[in-house]
Amino acid sequence: MSRPEHLAPPEIFYSGEEAKKYATNSRMREIQTTLSERALQLLALPEDGCFLLDVGAGSGLSGECITEAGHYWTGCDISKDMLEVALEGGVE
Questions:
Q1: 7-20 residues labelled b (16+ CB within 10 A) or e (exposed)
Q2: What 3-state DSSP class applies to 73?
Q3: Which residues on adjacent β-strands are paired with residue 87?
Q4: Residue spans of alpha helices (H) in 1-92
Q5: pLDDT by residue, tens only, the chain of 92 residues
Q6: Which residues does 75 contact at the CB level (< 8 Å), separation at least 6?
């Protein structure tokens, strides 16, 4: 199965409209939350707060889990529109 970013530029799959749909889709939010929480469990990070890099941060859904777990993060993404949705959603 090919990944979208291998088939065309990110603007095709992650346009402003698609980015907003992704960030507000309840099923996508649930999946992303579950995966992020599990990843944090597997990392077994110290509780005093770590600084993490979220590569492929998209709209910041994983970052919400990272923050809720008491950690700090910086995110990057190939899609400018996804990052704009993150900023609109309050991600700093």
A1: eeebeebbeeebbb
A2: strand
A3: none
A4: 4-7, 10-13, 16-24, 26-43, 61-68, 80-88
A5: 677 778 888 778 788 888 899 899 999 999 999 999 999 999 999 989 999 999 999 999 999 999 999 999 999 998 999 999 999 988 87
A6: 53, 54, 55, 57, 58, 60, 62, 63, 83, 86, 91
Give, to the nearest 10 degrees, the angle between helix 16-24 and helix 26-43: 70
CB burial of 47-80 (b: ≥16 within 10 Å; e: otherwise) equals eeeeebebeebbbbbbbbbbeebebebebebebe
Helix (H/G/I), strand (E/B), else coil: 3: coil
51 φ, ψ to 5°?
Answer: -105, 120
pLDDT of residue 4: 72
Per-residue three-class SS string for 40-62 = HHHHCCCCCCCEEEEECCCCCHH
Report how far residue 8's alpha carbon sits from residue 33's, in angstroms, rounded to the nearest whole number.
27
The full length of the chain comes to 92
